[in-house]
Structure formats: C-alpha cells, structure tokens
Design goal:
26 strands, 8-stranded antiparallel β-sheet, 17% helix, 9-stranded antiparallel β-sheet, 364 residues, alpha+beta
C-alpha cells in the first residue's frame, strides 16, 4: 500500500477514530487503526468490539492495500509531521514508512487479516435529526447516567421514540433527566445507548445544522455524521418505566431564575464535601425560598424572593445533585414542583415540554 494524504485531513481522521481503539486487548490488532486505501480515498477505522468509528478521507492512492498501525504512535507521528502532505507506504513484510518532508518514521504494521470485521445488521428503524439538537440532548442528560454494574440498563441513555418525538432519558437512582425533541418518524421504538458512545458522539467535530442519520438494529445502532460513522453495541435489557416515576400534579410550585438558584446553591456548597455531606435545606414559605446548610465547618444561609403556590415546605437536597440539574438546562427560568418533603422535586421549563428533571431529596 502507498497513499499520500493531506495532513489536516489525516490528523482529523486519526484523532477521531483513535477514540474507539481498544487500549488493551488480547487481539493486538484492536490496539491499532485500520487503513484501507482504494481508488481515490482511504477508510480509517477504530474498533474495540463495542464501539467502532470509521471515516473516509481523500488521498492519492499510488498502490491500493490495507494495514493496521498502532494507534497511539501513529496519531503522535502524523500530528508532528512538518509538511502539509504525509505519505504512508507499506511493503509485503508489513514494514511501514511514514514520510513528510525530511521526516521519516519506520514502524512494523499489523496485517489487516487480524482485524475483526465490524458487525453488519438488519435495519429495523431509522430516523434523522440535526447534530446540534442531538448533542444538546446528550449534554443535558449525560450527568444523570448511572454507573452501577448491578443495573446495566441504567449505564446508558434510553432513546424512546414515540408519536413523532424523541425522549432521551437518563436515570442514576438519585435523579432523572428527560430531553424531548420532535423527529420525523411516526414509528414507535426504543433502544439503550452506552454512556461511552454518547460521550464520543459529543466529540464528533461537525456543524450544528448537519444531519445525523440514525440506523437501529436489534443489537447495534449506527450514527452517520458528516463523513463519520459511529457504530455501537446497544445495552440489552429493559429500561425503567420512567413515565411511571413522574409525580402527577404538585402540592407546591414556584418559578425561579436559573442563575439565582445556581448561585445560591453554590454558596451553600462551600461548606460541604464528599467526606462531609449534609443536605442543603430548602424552606418554601412567606415570599420565596430560604436556604441553609449546617456542617462541622459552620453554617450558611441564603434566600431568593419568588412567589409560590400551594403549601409551605421544608426539604433537603444533595448540593451536587441539585447543581447538576439546574446547570444542565438551557433556560433562564425554571418551574419547581414539590409534592412533600420525601417526594422527588420536578423541574420543568416555563413553556413547553422540552425537558423534565427529577431530583430525589435527602432526609432531614
């Protein structure tokens, strides 16, 4: 194989597909990047048996062929090359020369025959949405994805498509986050995407208005974004019936400025830590919310004036869980709905239904 690449194209492709490469595997080939050169382009692939990222970039193909090169070394080499073109050439003994200007690297490649094929699957459903919308939905729900191996279904986010809407749901047992956007499909289906894949989708460099095509099978899904294809194994199992956990109605409700609640909880947080975790008390009474937190370090108090409807209330929350909830919404104002001191807080937008967050209280 012999191919000549534009450095910018090659660095961007290698940097992205490298994120799907296995860091440690019994199959040494999975620790490398597969390069397939044919016609006037080259396909690059990283794969760890759960996640695969591929892309195709233009190249001058002097001799067609394929090779697997160690991901970390290859990525570092191409980034440091001096010229705007990089030549990758390999011989029959897998000896590979990477050349740019006067700089030459010589490394041993791995046969592509040792590289496993990415799984193919029968398409069951497909839909499209803008990349900016998808990334916004992932960012808003990512913090609430669980990390308990005893509950594997919660270690990913649920894609629940129903009635022309996509609900992206994450639950970790202490909070739940739901983002809702319209999609052009009338089919009803759902699947669970692992947290790692969601993180990699956030890192794909693409325009916000570019179209993401999502192809879903029984055990895998593929996200096609601006020349990149992200293939992921799906998490099997049944997700929590999240709609049944949403409290109906409210005993106490109020509208509050997002900036103010963030600032107040951050002030309370100065007295808490992982080793010294105490609830932040919220007292809804009179003309708003009074907050206080008492720890071995001392005591903090604050208040926010805002009218409320319904019953007076005192409730406690983990400061980090509350901050995660209110920081990961794109809204200037929020609606807080309470149903007593031992029931989850429901956080909603002032208008519409683009998001819903539940935060479980701490006992006080």
């Amino acid at each position: 194989m012999k191919a000549v690449f534009n450095k910018t194209d090659l660095v961007a492709a290698v940097t992205t597909v490298q994120r799907a490469v296995s860091t440690k595997s019994s199959n040494h080939a999975l620790e490398g990047i597969l390069i397939k050169a044919k016609d006037s382009s080259a396909v690059l692939c990283g794969y760890d048996l759960d996640l695969g990222i591929t892309t195709e970039i233009p190249a001058v193909i002097v001799e067609e062929g394929d090779i697997v090169l160690g991901a970390r070394f290859f990525a570092d080499m191409v980034k440091l090359m001096p010229d705007e073109t990089i030549t990758v050439e390999t011989d029959d003994k897998l000896l590979t020369y990477i050349t740019s200007g006067e700089a030459i690297y010589q490394i041993i490649g791995i046969s592509s025959y040792e590289y496993p094929e990415l799984p193919s699957f029968t398409t069951l459903q497909t839909f499209e949405l803008e990349a900016g919308t998808l990334k916004s939905m992932i960012r808003d729900t990512f913090y609430a994805i669980g990390d308990n191996p005893a509950k594997p279904a919660l270690m990913g986010a649920l894609f629940d498509i129903d009635g022309g809407y996509l609900n992206l749901v994450s639950i970790d047992g202490f909070r739940m986050s739901v983002r809702r956007e319209k999609v052009e499909t009338e089919e009803k289906f759902e699947f669970i995407l692992p947290k790692k894949t969601l993180g990699e989708l956030l890192k794909i460099n693409c325009a916000d208005d570019s179209v993401v095509t999502v192809v879903v099978g029984k055990k895998h899904a593929v996200f096609k974004i601006e020349g990149y294809s992200v293939l992921s194994r799906l998490i099997e199992g049944k997700y929590v019936s999240y709609k049944d956990t949403i409290p109906k109605g409210s005993a106490t409700s109020l509208t509050i400025e997002t900036r103010k609640i963030i600032s107040s909880v951050e002030r309370m947080s100065l007295l808490t830590s992982d080793k010294m975790q105490q609830p932040v008390h919220f007292v809804v009474a009179d003309e708003g919310i009074k907050m206080f937190c008492t720890t071995a370090v001392g005591k903090a108090n604050d208040s926010i004036e805002t009218p409320f409807e319904g019953e007076e209330l005192e409730i406690g929350f983990n400061n980090r869980y509350m901050l995660d909830a209110v920081k990961n919404v794109n809204a200037d104002k929020l609606v807080f709905e309470f149903n007593g001191p031992n029931r989850p807080l429901k956080i909603l937008p002032v208008d519409g239904d683009s998001f819903l967050i539940l935060v479980v209280p701490m006992r006080i």
